[in-house]
Amino acid sequence: MLRRPKTTDSEADLLRQQEQFLTSGAPSAASVVRRPDKRRGEAGGGGGEHNGENEGSQRDVVTIEDLPDQLPSLTPAPPKKSRFKASRVTFEDEDAEGRLDRHDTHISAVLSRIVERDTSSTPISLPALTGMAFPKVTHRSETSSQVNQVPLSSVGGRKSIFARQIAAQRLKEGKTPLHCAPKTAQTPEPKEQNLPPETSMDTDQTDAAEPPTVSGPRLVSGQGLGGSDSWGETVRIHRENQAKLQAMSQSEILEEQKKLLSQLDPRLVDFVRSRKAQSVPSSASPSRHPEGKSSKENLPLESVSRESDSSSAAVLFQKPQEVEMEEDEEEELSPPPPVTEEDLPVKPQKEWVHMNKLEPEKLEWMRDLPAPRRKGTKKAMQARFDFAGNLIPPTKDLPTHLGLHHHGEEPERAGYSLQELFLLSRSQLIQQRSLALSTLANILSKARAGEFMSVLKGSVTSTLLDAGLLFLLRFALDDSVEGVMSAAVHALKALLVCAEDEECLDCTFSWFRGLASFPLLPSAQEEEDEEDEGLDECMKETAKEKEERKSDHDVAGQDVVKGLLKMKLLPRLRYILEVFRPSPRVVQDVLDILTRITRHSSSAATQVLGCPRLMETVMSEFLPTSWTAPSSPLPQSVYGLPLASAMKLLRVLATSGRHACARLLNSLGVRDRLSCLLSAEPSELLLEPPEALRITTEAYRLWAVAAGYGQACNLYIDLYPALVKALQCVHRALNPSDPLLPLQLQRILALLTLLTQVTHTAGCHQELQAGMVSSQGEECLPPPDVSWGHVTGLQPSLLGHLKSFVKFLDNPVEKDSSLALIPAYLVYLEAYYHQLSRQNCFKPVETLQELEQLTSEVLLPLFSHHVVQSLIRNLRSSSVVCNVQSSHHGRETIPSLPGLVCSGWRDRPGLVVPSSPFPLLTGLGLLLQTMTGIHKGLGCKFTGLLLSEPVIGYLRSCSQATPTVSHTRAWLLRHEHHLLYLLLRLAHRLVPIEPEVARHASLYHQVALVLLPWLLPGSEYLAHELLSTILFNKDFISEGHSGGPEAVELGELKLHEGTQHHTSPSLQTVGALLREACVQLPSIRGCFLTHLAHLESSVLVSQDALLGCNPRINSHLLPELTGPTLPSDWPFLPLISLYERTGVSDGGGLAVEELPQGALQAVTHCLQWLLLLEVWREEALKVIPPVAKLARLSCVFLCSSDLFLERPVQKLTWGLFRLLTRQSRLDSLDLNVPPPGLASFQDLYSALLAQYEAVSFGDQLFGCWVLLPLQRRYSATMRLAVFGEHVGMLRSLGVTLEKLSIPIERFTSPPEDSLPLLRLYFRSLVTGTLKFCWCPVLYVVALSHVNSFIFSQDAAAQEVEAARHSMLRKIYYLTDEVLRNHLLLFRLPEQHSEFGFDMYEQLPPIRAKRLESVLGLQDSSDDKGD
After folding, report:
1. Do residues 1187 and 1229 touch, judged by C-beta distance below 8 A?
2. What average pLDDT score do residues 313-319 get?
3. CB atoms < 10 A from the CB of 347, how many?
4. Amino acid 60: pLDDT
């Protein structure tokens, strides 16, 4: 069967198909008919046939045999000649004008050629005589019955009503209709056309009860056959096919059907099915069988089989992934039956135009919705949501009156997809836009809360942002319809703001340094700008210029808040507040959005503060100085009323910097608002009680932030009576039955935070006053308005409150309130006593007595109380450091929109919940640090805190934890780091004087070591204190003075005796080296502090913040969270910094000629510290991969040409090498993983090889370092580098097997499989480049691999086998008998033998046989050559 050409066929395919067609002799599907030219008088019949024959005999055939292989030259082609012109006879001397005159004849010559048609034989029929003047006008309904009786085939297909009436009249008169087909074609159409299309594919099957004579093919017409009886031939072929099918079994039919479907083009199958579907009208299906024979049993076997396999055939032509997804539903879901006339609610009438034919595909919308998808399917489905943002399960069947089915895709499923909601949000109908945006807002709220994380694949919020949600909301904010704008504001708030995050930050505001926070900036992503490569620094674009050049889409993709600011969000929000004056909910949302934008960074806060008329609108409309009481608890408008959210916005703005705070206080009139709100009781503010408590709480917090800069202190003097009155009402406000108790507690905590900050500020007055006097006109900080005398009167009252709250712990009703307030009182007392010790009026004797009284009456009863003890037991379960996994669940995290991820924080253990001991222990630790600094003897009374089982267990868990740093954890980790630091400071005071505490000194030292690289930006002072006091303190390294070095020496001796190694004496000095390192601990501390001097400015800023030097604080916004303060590999810092200054350049030489002064001492101290940590604090270095340790220690050899030759460095490096090559360490050393900070270890190894060749002088230590990466388990690239590019170093790599602390089996097993490397091994041995006396280790390695290769019995490729034979023959004919015997008789490596390996006395039989076979092959080939 000839195949139809496809659009994808090439020219070669078309030519090949043309050749097949010509050779087959088949007639053309289309015949070329030449119309007779009436002007020439040609006859229609004969001429047409003759011309057709000529055309048939002279076909156009394309041939390319004569075409040249090369393209023709681009020369002008000859002009085209007309085919008609060539047939004319012309003369050279003929005049053109005369020729025109001859041909341009008169019109009479044209008219004279008109020939009339001969009508003599045409019968003339006269019209029938009627009594009517005009033909009768018949209605359509009267003629439809006559017209429908005429088959379409008799009228030549689809004809007009008039033509069908004429045809009906002719049939009635017994005449043949015009344009009729041959008689064979007038056979009535078989009834089996009414079969459903699934029963056959290319031919029809007749019923067994019907005679086969009436059947005929449906798709094949026989029109292309050349004979006259083409239809009869087609019917005969059809009957033969039927007979063959009836003789086949069902399995044979199915097999043939599968074979056909696999061979045919899917498009051809679809075409056949579509033709068959067109030929079988669905409305005629009931007439297929008579009554009683319409069941499936009456169908032939092949029809049943085809019908049963129709679904599988349909699936066969789908994509493979669709088959896999739908395989669970093949047997469950069946296609719905087509719509019939009985299913229609309104039956069509005959009088209706164009309703005589039923079109099922257009009536599908009237069918009932199919049932939702059943459970158990593996196919992923599109998520659909209701208007409340809830995810609708795919199996849930909801009623249609809910309005959740108005979508085209998946009509049976309720709910709307994100794509459909996006489409609706841009609708022209206001209601649709509002509804879509409100639904998106609800979805965002639930997605940000993490409700979809377990049921949906991927992140909903990330998907929405990638789809352009930010631009959609920004466009919607510009909508002139208030409803649409309000919905867009609500959606933007749902995207940016998390209420639970804000609640967490508010709860920790009264903690130690709780008013400080990290900016919510996305993690910085380094971008490589190719345009700036090769340019001078002065010509490169600045970061600001690059930012301005970026599009809004690029900026928003990296930082959502920055993208919104670039899209002019702030002016639009100001316009909404100022002009729209929306409802209270929209106002609240706008203020929350502004607060979240302010938390982004100091630059974002500056833009909020600098937006024209924005803050003026907020101050005048939502923080007025006077207002009238609202008429209802929920007023229709909040304009003209003070709002707590507006005050919170001012507080967050003030946190961004002291200049912003001063601008708020002085330019925007915040000072007047604070006086207005705080001078009266909350019940006197003409506001609803909850709102009054909220706004006064935020006012206290704003004032506390200002006091944290040393500002608004004169306000303290003015409002001192109001503050005292508020303190006197503390117990009265804490009524357990009051429903507003949580708000009352927050208000009191904010008041205590304010007093703490004012106390710190007042404590700095004396120092700044003295600095101003001694400055002698130089610029210096002015002293604050409040002095120490202004705050001393508050301490007795607050101390009395603390005592009463400690007593209230026994009352179950007041226990929770007391536990919430006690930490704030402890923080206040710490500030008071810390600043008191710095004043001139400090009286040590009275203060010591006061502290002793405070300890005995308050602190010890508090610590020993059963409520506090039960709280301390929750220390480990509440920790963020110890519970890394549990802190990951919660909200969705988006890189471009960082948050705190605090959803559900009240329902799970954590740092902020009421059952957490962290605020209480932090306050107690702060107070104890200050008190023990003043009174040294008080520390012994709190040994129980450090020795308690919960604290010891918590510290052990921390020493083994590996927390990660991110925005979601950093703000909580900061508070936990404070507690760990305070516990270590208490241990620092007690370890020298308390033997029980000293027993756990190594645990405290371990915790200090792991805490140091955890500390975040803003805690640089804590890192400095740990380095100065604990890390290098010999009291915390108890092994150094309790027999630790001696124990190490004994262990080394025992190891040597057990293995009977003759180890070099340089390796037996680890104990002595440790003893020396313990003596040098103060010098080691000085070395590391010197190398961390670049952090001095950060340490001073952190010190001012942590010690309460408020006038020196520039911002309560912590530095950007780019990672910990110190890297995890800080013990290698002196070594790395020296390498960066003097390291090997690209050319292989040194960057400097000699080492800087003190470099040898710094490297020695660094190696001593590393050796101490490796032996006694191995857990502290587990965060550094072994490959990173090896890479950083390699700097010893790369820094200088002779640094590694210095005796102290040599000894320490030998000890570290011995520790790194222990059995357990070697197993974990993976050199295939790139070390942190390097692209690959191979690059570093290349530098090491070049340095070894240049400056090693055969040093044994350097040689061991170079040999370590040559183990068999590592990449062959490094071995190829040694035996290829740096083969000359084999002459000086004289490390003996005894010196190498690595088992030789790690180099020789398994056998080498790299053929290029094996050839290099063989070449170096045969040429004498590698000798045992020069390089014993690699000599044994090369022997082992070459021997195992040449005698290997494993099947290999032809090239490998040829290499084996070649090497074996060359070895046999070697003149060096020693090398020949080594290569042939090598048995196993043996590290303690003379040569490092064992040999056979004679060649084993199997090897001898192989040698003979190889040599025999050689001899036979030589004979053939002769």
Report:
1. yes
2. 30
3. 8
4. 55
